[in-house]
Amino acid sequence: MSPSPRLPGIRPALVALALTVALTGCSASSDDAEGSQPIAEACAGVSTRVDAAMTAFADVDAADPAAAADALAAVVDGLGDASRSIDNAELEKTVTKLHDGFATLSDAVDAAASGDITGVAGLATATEDIRAAGAEFARLCSD
């Protein structure tokens, strides 16, 4: 499938998001947050799933909206699984926000892949939500 000239906002948004999420890591902080699971343990347990979701997202071909929609659906599923595995309220809330941002982005890209470009307007909001949640994830899970 060739790039669609009707989707000019998707490619830059996907590239920006890929760079943002690629820079967020989880190496486990020594501070505990709310919940029965210490934050370091929660981060260690979820980082593999979050990393797998981010890798899938980084591999998105922004020139192919249908493939991007499929990849984003996999990211959303992976982040949903990750958020359900956390027993730390603060980290669970952050990963859920990351999931929700990607779900919004996925919906917009899926609609665009079907020819409905009205969802493109939501890309800026989704991008900001993902950036904010990614920064919070990195803050919670880094030394």
From TrEMBL:
<feature type="signal peptide">
    <location>
        <begin position="1"/>
        <end position="27"/>
    </location>
</feature>
<keyword id="KW-0732">Signal</keyword>
<protein>
    <submittedName>
        <fullName>Uncharacterized protein</fullName>
    </submittedName>
</protein>
